[in-house]
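COMPLEX REQUEST
Ligand: pyridoxal-5'-phosphate
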Amino acid sequence: MTPTYESLGEIDPRVAALIESEEARQLRSIRLIPSENHASPAVRAALGSAFTNKYGEGYPGRRYYQGQEFDDALESEVIARAKALFGYPYANVQALSGAPANLAVYSAFMKPYGGRIMAMRLDHGGHLTHGSPVSVTGQWWEIHPYGCNEHDVLDMDAIRRQALEIRPDVLVCGYTAYPRTIDFEAFGAIAKEVGALSLADISHIAGLVAGGAHPSPWPHMDVVTFTTHKTLRGPRAAVILSREQAHAEAIDKAVFPGLQGGPHFATIAAIGVCLAEAATPAFRLYAHRVVDNARALAAALVERGFHVLSGGTDNHLLLVDVRKSRKLPGKRAAVALERVGIELNFNTVPNASELQKPLFPDGIRMGTPSVTTRGMTVADMPRIAEFIDRGLALVKSGRLAEGESMWTDPDARDTLRTEVEAFASGFAAFQYEAG
Ligand SMILES: *Cc1c(COP(=O)(O)O)cnc(C)c1O
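STATUS: Structure written out below.
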């Protein structure tokens, strides 16, 4: 069942070599991209299984193909696990990823050009599929964005006033770059008050919710979407949960035949494995350690004089305004840190300078799901903060001339990279938590 790279190497040496290079790259880097993780060997085995050979349009017991003996049982089992883990009575496990899952929910409840979505603005931490003008979600529906206040946090009273005025059809919470706890109870109450469907997109924090390290959207939110490959540590896919049967039926129809054809059963098998893993005491420990590590990393960065948005974090990620901290543009900081073996991404931040644009942002975003999976603890976080600090200290802050190097000292950069790689290589490729 385990992927056999030996035979792959004989049949397709080029792709095999790229896979090997990517594996090696991941293990020698400090991976801080908060939407990434390392899936377990069991999840990866399920992904490479014979279920990839099977077609089965429809839902368990209602298929358009023969030979459904085991994939019906599989999908039913995975649905049951999703419901049990998150406490919702209905689940759809066929959405191919987070973006199609959100599109399925919107299209289940609104006709194109006939509905209003109220969601967080992209540059304050919302997702493209929450109504960005470059996403069809922002082209087919009327979008009313909300944002953070001057303290970089959500103001639920302001959101309620806005919702009362706008009367959206769908009120969305759940973000890609928001470091604080989401008040699902307040969002659910506002949606109810204004007659909107409440949607919690917990893609980033699904693993924290499953592990009890972030409050659950149950029973406050009508519909919940999440990707399974971020903190939940599963395959690249998504799950849609709902509270009411009528919603669940509309969502199932929107996924298939509305938007998709045959389910990806190998992926569904891998979702099942990650849900079983996420239901264990070891995973609860993992989820809490992710948050402990993020808090420790934020504290270590604050100690080094970095401007951490909202002052810290309650979840797995944090944002740093590197222009305020080190007079650096976010993109240059992210590119520089990649050169020394630290992977994170540049990101817009609320309350930034006038210079900030989506492609020219003031911030960097980082998170601890991957490093925690590799066994790093709070004791390792000051070291990572030190690496980041030293890396950025080697980067020129002013405007660079065409073709000018961003580095003040390329030798010091290379020394740092060697140190970072030695540090990262010292941790396990994947570690199940043991109390
Ligand atoms: C990652 C993410 C998505 C999109 O998931 P994809 O699998 O990349 O399509 C949607 N919403 C939120 C909040 C996310 O973080």
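REMARKS: The pocket of pyridoxal-5'-phosphate is lined by residues 35, 97-99, 102, 127, 129, 174-176, 201, 203-204, 227 (CB under 6 Å). Residues 281-424 form a domain with the Aspartate Aminotransferase, domain 1 fold (CATH 3.90.1150.10).
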